[in-house]
Structures are given as structure tokens and as C-alpha cells.
Amino acid sequence: MTSTTPSVQDKSDKDRVIIFDTTLRDGEQCPGATMTFEEKLEIAAMLDTMGVDVIEAGFPIASDGDFEAVNEIAKRTKNAVVCGLSRAGQKDIDRCAEAIRPAKRGRIHSFLSTSPVHMKYKLQMEPDAVHDLVISSVTRARNHTDDVEWSSEDGTRTEFDFLCRCVESAIKAGATTINIPDTVGYSVPEEYYDLFKRVRENVPNSDKAIFSVHCHNDLGMAVANSMAGIRGGARQIECTINGIGERAGNAALEEIVMAMKVRNDKLPYWNNIDTTMLMRASKEVSAATSFPVQYNKAIVGRNAFAHESGIHQDGMLKNAQTYEIMLPETVGVKQTSLVMGKHSGRHAFIHKLEEMGYKLGQNQLEDAFVRFKALADRKKDIYDEDLEALVDQEMTAAHDRIKLVSLTVIAGTHGPQRATMKLNVDGVVKIEEAEGNGPVDAVFNCIKALVPHEAKLELYQVHAVTEGTDAQAEVSVRLAHEGRSMTSRAADPDTLVASAKAYLGGLNKIVMKRARDMPAPVAAAS
Ligand code: KIV
Ligand code: ZN
């Protein structure tokens, strides 16, 4: 640790902050971040190991898939409280209770809008009726479990006296955690601090509940607002890995945790997170959602510990503290190096992946190794970024029902461009040829011919994983299907192969989701 990173010394209970992760609920709710059942289980296990106190695993009434994921996470989680979200209706609450029932420690999180604009237009209810519903919903939830959280949706735009009235009644009805969300990311730190301080001072039974912050990032202040709320007396932070979430996202877990660690002199609070797992968590969530992490993202961005300019490099060589306020190892970042190549063996490969924070199952490791060797034959230098792309793909491809077997494309100045593709669909190998307006179009037309579907391509993006003309191309696609968007990413030295794999990755997600909701043959993925 550098001298600018004081250690957390006085760990008194009053300064302990509960980390409530909502990656699997608020994070998954945002367009394009849909995760498969298996991905949700893996992420929940990782959050549990990392030391998250409460895992909000989903919204059980939303779909059978959500219910099953929450239910399975409740069965498997060893340490964390497993929480399900619920609206105020009785059916919602009962369904949520059923989903979390197997948990060692389960929580029902019920929410209801309290701001004038939400009550008038969204709920079309009078304040008195909303207040009554707060009481009946919390009472119902308390009949199922003694760990009940109540949220005043759009809390920061709620009239102060009404907010206090609802909070007091929710606590009286049995809520043990009170969350006041900045649902639309409108607040500023001083105001959010003041809100918690005043609510806690004005609500007579406020000492009977833990207060919680939940900030959206529409004005880029989610982390600052969260910390201000803690200063105002809240002791739970709701956040997501990589800050994913509705619109501009939620407060990023990794930023909150590192802010408390690095600036403990100004933010004298502590939590139980193992910070060395932050990078791995970021990569796992990015791979599962196919949401790339912004290069300059605080803590976990590719450039967060990179020094490019001569002046900075010179300073770093003399003393790392010149430009680094935390050691990369603290967040699980290893320096990029160029050690892997076609002569590297299985042992070195496994060791390297472990060093990079990856833990793969035996079959995944074997597959990844075979693909690493194939890549090393085609590409002289294998950078850490290449391995990351390869492993991310391996982790998402583990449950794929549609697999690319081979692809040949004829392209060039004399069109039309033509693609021949072989796919393995549920164990059956199929082949097809198609033309297109350009090679990518020809490839996608082949996929459509082999796996007929109605999904619409909303986004297609290509960038290079590393430098040089032999760099791997990383392709991201977003497919819109039945009102939801699925994003998927794939990398390969051949841009067209990466395009095919990315598109198939999106289709696989659609097929998996469809199969969970209603088992059906792959060919009917429309
Ligand atoms: O942003 C919000 O208000 C929410 C609630 C459901 C807690 O996500
Ligand atoms: Zn939210």
C-alpha cells in the first residue's frame, strides 16, 4: 500500500457499511445486460466469495426465469443475505417470499413510489392511499421474513413531510432497512447528505432501522452522492459491479469500496469486500453482460493503471507514488506482460490465468488451452488482453447450443460477397451458403438461413483488442428480441469469424432465455 493509502484502523461497528449489490437486479434490468441463468449463478457465487453483504438476485414476479434464478441463488449462497425485489402488491410479495425461502438469510425488498410526479402519473393514486399501501405491503412482507427492506421510489423528489410519514409507518410495520433512492440521478451530494440527516432526525423511530443509499448516475454523481448519504447517517450502499444499471447506471461497487479504502482519512467507514477480487468481478460481469468496460473507467478500466506519457513513465520509474494512489495489486490488477506465446505449455497457461484472476472449471480450461494454442499459431505475441478476450469467450460459450464449426468468405472488389458456414445446432451439423451486401452481411445472412429468427440487429461494432495488424478483432453486437436487447461480444484474429461468433453469442442468449421460459427447439428462436 502506498503512503497515501491509510489502513482502516478503528473498525467500530458504527462505521461499518453494508454492501448491497444489485448487479443481478438493477444492473440486469438495463437494456442489453440480460444474463443467462448460469451466468447469474456464477456471478452470485463470485459476489458471495468477494464479501458482499446482501445480493439482490432479481425480481421474482418479473418472469419465471427471474424467479428460478433468485430461488437457486437462495439455495446456493453461503454467506450473504439473498434479497428479492417486489412491488407493493400482495402477489408480488408472496412470489418474492417463495423465491427467497431456501436462503440461509433472505430479504424481501418492497418498493413504492412516493414523489408527486410518480404518484400522480405512474401510480395514479392519492398520497393517503400510497401511505396505506406502504403499511400493508411491509406488514405482508414481515409475515414472511423478519428481514424487510422498504424503498421510497423517487425518494429524492418526494415531499419531505410525506417521505418522513411513510418512513415512520414502514418502520412501525416492521421494515428493518429503509432505502431512499435517488431513482433519477437528480440529487447532488450536499442535498443527499442533508436528506438523510433530516429524515433520521425527524422520524421518531428512525433508530429502529438501517438507512440505505441507492444512487443512479444520470449526472455522474452516483458515487459522490452515495458517500454523502453515508456521511448523513446511512449505513448501507446499493451498488453494482462496473456501475451497470438503468440509463446511466448505478453507483459502481468498485469505486465506492476503493474510495473508502484509499481515502479512509476523509471517509472513515469500512466494509467486508476483498478488494483483490474487484478486477475479476468486473471482467466476469462484463463477459456475462457483454457490456465492455470503458477504457478509462475508475479502478477497473484498462487504462486505470496505465501510464503513457513520457513524463508520467519517468515519474513512475522513479517512484510509483508519483502517479499512483493505490497499488494495482490491491484491486487484483497484474502488470501487462508479454510472456505467453506458442511455446508456452498448459502449466504456464493455467498459472497465467490464475495470476490474472480467472478461475475456470477443468473442461473450460482444456477448451481455453486448445483455443490459446490455435491463437498462438496465428499470432506471434499473445498479450494479456488477448487471453482476457479468449477466456471471456470461453466463459460465455460454455453453455452455447449453437456453435460455429467453420466459415469461408469470398470478398473483394467483385461482388456479391459470399459466405459458406457450418454450424453445430444442438449436436446437429448444418451447412449453408448466402450472399450479402458486403462480407459481414453475407455471414449474417448465412446465420439467418441456418437458424431462422426474428431478432433485429441493433448495433454492430468492431475494435482491435491490441495493437498491430495481427491484433484480434473484438466485435460487439446487440440483438433486439421480444422487447429486450441482448448484447454479445467475441474476438478472433479474423474480423468475420469474430462477427459470426458475436452474432451467434446473441442468438444463444435468446435461445437460452426462451428455453428457460418455455422449452422449444432452437430453430424456433423467433
Ligand atoms: O432506483 C430505484 O428507485 C430502484 C428501486 C426499485 C429501489 O431501483
Ligand atoms: Zn435503481
From TrEMBL:
Residues 17-279 form the Pyruvate carboxyltransferase domain. The gene is leuA. Belongs to the alpha-IPM synthase/homocitrate synthase family. LeuA type 1 subfamily. GO terms for cellular component: cytosol. GO terms for molecular function: 2-isopropylmalate synthase activity; acetyl-CoA C-acetyltransferase activity; manganese ion binding. This is 2-isopropylmalate synthase. PANTHER family: 2-ISOPROPYLMALATE SYNTHASE 1, CHLOROPLASTIC-RELATED, HOMOCITRATE SYNTHASE-RELATED. Pathway: Amino-acid biosynthesis; L-leucine biosynthesis; L-leucine from 3-methyl-2-oxobutanoate: step 1/4. It comes from Tardiphaga robiniae. GO terms for biological process: L-leucine biosynthetic process. CDD domains: DRE_TIM_IPMS. Mn(2+) binds at residues 26, 214, 216, 250.
